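Interim report, section 4.2 (structural modelling).
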Amino acid sequence: MSVIYDRVALIGLGLIASSIAHAVKWKGLAREVVGHARSAETRATALEIGLCSEVFETAAEAVRGADLVILCVPVGAMDAIAAEIAPHLKPGATVTDVGSVKQAVIDAVGPHLPEGVHFIPGHPLAGTEHSGPRAGFATLFVNRWWLLTPVAQSEPDAVARLRSFVEAMGANVEEMDAPHHDLVLAVTSHTPHLIAYTMVGVADHLRRVSQSEVIKFSASGFRDFTRIAASDPVMWRDVFLTNKEATLDILGRFTEELFMLQRAIRMGDGDMLHDYFTRTRAIRRGIIEAGQDTDAPDFGRAPAPKPGA
Amino acid sequence: MSVIYDRVALIGLGLIASSIAHAVKWKGLAREVVGHARSAETRATALEIGLCSEVFETAAEAVRGADLVILCVPVGAMDAIAAEIAPHLKPGATVTDVGSVKQAVIDAVGPHLPEGVHFIPGHPLAGTEHSGPRAGFATLFVNRWWLLTPVAQSEPDAVARLRSFVEAMGANVEEMDAPHHDLVLAVTSHTPHLIAYTMVGVADHLRRVSQSEVIKFSASGFRDFTRIAASDPVMWRDVFLTNKEATLDILGRFTEELFMLQRAIRMGDGDMLHDYFTRTRAIRRGIIEAGQDTDAPDFGRAPAPKPGA
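Predicted structure of the assembly:
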């Protein structure tokens, strides 16, 4: 691989940013990776483990001279960060982000950016339940989707360059508009997360079943909920606050559908339940065929290839 | 290991029964394993892959001379099977089952069994999304819970013997009464499954997001739902029909809680969301510490040890 951007600036140094830093180094995609984090502890860790060659106290310093700026902060922090960095961006630089919601990021960041800077919002569909600068690893994006939602002003050349950068980290790229992105994610990610959080909360409140019982016997289904309910609380708060309409839309459909199944249970309508459960199996098969999970009997996921392997 | 039961009869030859057959052979826990399945195709498969030394067309034939009879059929089929086998059971034999609901099994099976037969209901908390006689593997129960819900008449010696059999397959055993079992499972398994089925159904119905988009972008949370929503439809229909009260109780709490979070989203109450999401993280940590999942960054689960390893 060859250098795609001379200098990359990572604003925020959590799971996604640290994985980008590792992947860029693994593939040699930049001559230099610099960074900024609000917390002094995170900045010290980033230097200690060699994520960046330089780590700055302010985002304004970090973006100076950068050809690619990647905003890796919670969606709710994008507005303030964009206002801070705007006067310091190099003309011709590309600014992207990794936020889970796209219209809200466009509304927050777009108005601050000067002419001559390419703004191309993005969203890697990759993550783990861990957060922070030590959580990253180089292969996080391998065979995962990275969605780009270019705005009207995004120049095709700048989009193609960012696309090649992301693909070089192993990701598959798809472009779509921001409102569609936000609806797709409300279905595939945001609502499932809210439901998982809720189910874990219910178990936590129940007096007649102890928390240690819930934990001990979690392998029978509950475990899969706790995994997604363990993600970063700040990130998820911002997702729901900024993708409100689409999430509430999907939640409304979900409760309608749940009430229908609940009624079938109450009325003892076995045929209805059986038909419903049969249909949902087909979607699962599609996911395995699409290579987004394995069908190993232990539900294991093959670990991503190690760098250098 | 040494032989614990001379002759074991498996009634039903799906995922759980075939895993028991493999585990019994692996550990040498019986001199002979015989079986029965309703479908001629399943019976042929069981003989072909050597699950059992003999496979019978009727459950009545299969239980003759068996020291341990394990009912591995959906909960809704237990009543008819118990009526059929009762006259053919060997005096002193132990009858157990692997149903996901326990009070309904006790009500269905108990009245049919003659005096002198030990009835000890059971439930292994282990499974995969696959079903059928080819789905089983010897290590399915290793480090998983196997709950026993002895009834008033269950003799301590018979319970201890069954317990040692189950532990020899690698499982951890806990005893509890049937109503408590059904409530614990409603929280940790039955309600999570219903919710997962519902979410997958919602995604399936949505016109503005194509099924191929849902499948492609499933890694962002939805995937974990599809995994548990792919389980055997007949088994799950019977679970909800026979654990109706506890499931409806937990579902009621779930929708209350969900509406509260939905309202917080609508009102933009970020503090409430953040607090809620922070609390659920603690439960997740408990599960990892209890050894019921790993915290590997790729969410991988270590495969169970291979027989002989």
